[in-house]
């Protein structure tokens, strides 16, 4: 929603009803047939999908001003991913009818949202290629680079467990633990209160580009 004009964003939020979700709650379930969209106000969620072999892959994080669930509303199909509250979350819920009414009345917002969906699909293609071709250490370094910085998404990503980091890069927990230990031994990162803190970004970037 950050890309929307302020007037469009205000109109979108005015149509929804408030919802809150506690950390750890499953907000949307892959395969579920639902007809609502959530506009996140505060808090962070993980977006993941379950594979046929039982493993889970985390595609990314969604937080304040992100819109989730719109794809199922656009095409009427089932949810393509799970959405789980990483922290306590507050949001505005719009039914399919409310969301479609908003789009009809705000054609520029419609274009912005479609462009955002296209960007996410392109990013998913790149992510899939990385999972298929890159070693675990490089995949982990790229993930940490993506979430390290001034964006508040960084603080949210630091909450991810080793299991969740493994799901985000398509690896085992054991291989992630080994890669993290390697990065700590090189003084690239440290763990503070069970959260990952990058202390040598140039070195991490060099590893990611190996």
UniProtKB/TrEMBL annotation:
Q: Where's the HTH crp-type domain?
A: 134-202
Which SMART domains does the UniProt entry name for this protein? cNMP, HTH_CRP
Q: Offer a single GO CC term for the protein.
A: cytosol
The residues covered by the Cyclic nucleotide-binding domain are 1-103
The UniProt keyword set, sorted, is: DNA-binding, Transcription, Transcription regulation
Q: Name one GO molecular function term.
A: DNA binding
Has UniProt tagged this entry with the keyword Transcription? yes
Q: Which InterPro entries match?
A: cNMP-bd_CS, cNMP-bd_dom, cNMP-bd_dom_sf, Env_Response_Regulators, HTH_CRP, RmlC-like_jellyroll, WH-like_DNA-bd_sf, WH_DNA-bd_sf
Q: Which domain of life is it from?
A: Bacteria
User: Matching Gene3D superfamilies, A to Z?
Assistant: Jelly Rolls, Winged helix-like DNA-binding domain superfamily/Winged helix DNA-binding domain
Pfam families noted in UniProt: cNMP_binding, HTH_Crp_2
Protein's name in the database: Crp/Fnr family transcriptional regulator
Source species of the chain: Actinocrinis puniceicyclus
């Amino acid at each position: 929603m950050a890309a929307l004009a302020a007037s469009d964003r205000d109109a979108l939020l005015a149509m929804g009803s408030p919802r809150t979700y506690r950390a750890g709650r499953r907000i949307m379930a892959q395969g579920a047939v639902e007809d609502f969209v959530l506009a996140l106000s505060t808090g962070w969620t993980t977006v993941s999908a379950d594979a046929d072999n039982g493993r889970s892959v985390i595609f990314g994080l969604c937080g304040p001003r992100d819109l989730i669930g719109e794809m199922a509303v656009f095409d009427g199909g089932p949810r393509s991913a799970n959405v789980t509250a990483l922290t306590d979350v507050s949001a505005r819920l719009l039914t399919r009818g409310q969301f479609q009414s908003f789009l009809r009345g705000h054609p520029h917002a419609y274009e912005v949202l479609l462009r955002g969906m296209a960007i996410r699909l392109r990013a998913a293609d790149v992510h899939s290629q990385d999972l298929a071709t890159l070693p675990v250490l490089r995949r982990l370094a790229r993930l940490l680079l993506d979430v390290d910085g001034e964006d508040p998404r960084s603080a949210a990503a630091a909450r991810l467990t080793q299991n969740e980091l493994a799901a985000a890069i398509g690896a085992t927990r054991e291989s992630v633990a080994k890669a993290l230990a390697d990065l700590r031994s090189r003084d690239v990162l440290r763990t503070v209160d069970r959260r990952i803190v990058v202390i040598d970004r140039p070195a991490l970037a060099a590893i990611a580009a190996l």
